[in-house]
Amino acid sequence: MRPEKAAVLPYGLTAREYPDFVRRWDRVYCGSSFCPGLAPSKEAVSALYRAGARAVTVLTPFVTDEALAKLVKLFGGMARAGLRPEIAVSDLGLLSALRSGPWRRGSFTLGRPLSHDFLRMPVTFLKKFFAENGIAMLETDEADMAEGLPARGLKVAFHYPLRFVTMSRCCPWTGRMGSCSRPVCAGRRKVLTAPGMTAPGGKKPGRLILSENAYFFGGGRPPDHPAVARTVFAPGA
Questions:
Q1: Using CB atoms within 10 A of its CB, is residue 121 exposed (0-12), middle (13-18) or buried (19+)?
Q2: Residue 160 — very low, low, confident or very high, per pLDDT cuts 50/70/90?
Q3: Rounded CA gap, 6 and 158, in Å?
Q4: What pLDDT was estimated at residue 204?
Q5: Cα separation of 39 and 69, whole Å?
Q6: Largest CA distance in the chain
Q7: How many CA atoms within 13 Å lie on the side-chain side of 202?
Q8: What is the distance between the alpha carbons of residues 58 and 33, in angstroms, rounded to a whole number?
Q9: How high does pLDDT run on average in the chain?
């Protein structure tokens, strides 16, 4: 069975342009696994479904208490409106809050910042944790870790071509802590180089790509492995 093909909704795309974009993919991702200021509105998620999206996943980041309260309120509003997108959680506190509230029977995945650690845990623990918490799969961009998973029992949503390296709570675009009311990072990318930086494969100088409040290497590709149940393409990367 071929992997489900998904793509991240580009920032700046208008609702009028949604139909042309969503019809090309089995699933559309929106939001951010890194910046709390980029959560989509209930209206934007509704517009994706109206445009013909077959399935929607909302990405969420690590959260402060303030951001957690806002996201619980946001998803509560979606639930009351009959919207039930899949949620990629990067914060276990948010997962607990949603499962004990508006998203008791919701579908979840583990976002990239959280999966980086979970992929290194024993498979038996992961299977048990997934079953107990309603988690369908891991979101990752680490090909070697995905290829190390068993062919059955654990599923991966593989993001490409950007490969996550690290992130910052201090916004690289504004130099400020906390989220913006109108994020300046939306849709922007910057290439950073340094003589001593080594990219995967040993190439020098390495190039980092700044996107949102996170840093990435480029050139990632989904591995051909049974655990990869979904591929997630980031347009413009």
A1: exposed
A2: very high
A3: 10
A4: 56
A5: 13
A6: 53
A7: 0
A8: 9
A9: 90
Query: Strands 214-217 and 163-167: what pairing?
Result: antiparallel
Stated pTM of the model: 0.92
**Confidence band, pLDDT 50/70/90 cuts, at residue 215:** very high
Q: How far is CA 153 from CA 123, 138, 150, 201, 236, in A?
A: 9, 12, 7, 30, 33
Domain range list for the chain: 4-164+219-233
Q: DSSP character for 133?
A: H
Residues 6+ apart with CB under 8 A from 24: 7
Classify 211 as helix, strand or coil: strand
Percent of all residues in the chain with a pLDDT value above 70, rounded to a whole number: 93
Determine the topology of domain 4-164+219-233 in CATH.
Answer: TIM Barrel (3.20.20)
Average pLDDT over residues 133-154: 90
